[in-house]
Amino acid sequence: MSVSQSNSLIEPYLFFGGRCEEALNFYQQAIGAEIEMVMRFCESPEPPPPGTIPEGFENKVMHASLRIGQSRVMASDGCGEVAGFQGFSLSVTVESEAEAEQVFQALADRGEVTMPLAKTFWSPCFGMLTDRFGVSWIVTIVAEQS
Q1: Which residues form the PhnB-like domain (predicted)?
Q2: What is the pLDDT of residues 21-56, one digit of tens each?
Q3: Same domain? 46 vs 97
């Protein structure tokens, strides 16, 4: 059986290079993400192998899960590497222009707007940005079908 024929899920797993807790709190406050669980390296039932994490990372996030709408995003501080988010965007689809504006502005706080929210031929409201952590986002509402 191939993955495309099973009930498999694809869930993004983001590595924040030491800023995971800050990112979780930001997404919770900015867009109402629900933090489902957080496990720190020091809470692991098995300690990481020696040299795996940098000194001072014991209280950093080993694994976290957050729910944004109907989707789950997993996150971690990683093993000390610098976060680098390239080649993808998280796309959030909302129900109204007012909600799109609120989500867009919240995510753009101290980030960079790539394409301001505007009407396009495929959506009455579409915009792109990179948040303060370097994560690329697309905010859109679905066009009404005629």
Answers
A1: 10-139
A2: 999 999 999 999 999 999 999 999 998 888 888 888
A3: no
Q: Which domain, by its residues, includes 16?
A: 1-83
Does 5 have pLDDT greater than 80?
Answer: no
Q: What is the CATH number of the domain that holds 89?
A: 3.30.720.110
Q: Which of 70, 85, 8, 5 is nearest to 34 (CA)?
A: 70
Whether residues 110 and 130 share a domain: the answer is yes
Residues pairing with 63 in the sheet:
39
Q: What is the CATH number of the domain that holds 38?
A: 3.30.720.100
SS3 40: strand
Task: State pTM to two decimals.
Answer: 0.89
Same domain, 120 and 90: yes
Task: Indicate the length of the chain as a whole number.
Answer: 146
- Looking at residue 4, its pLDDT comes to 63
Number of separate domains in the chain: 2
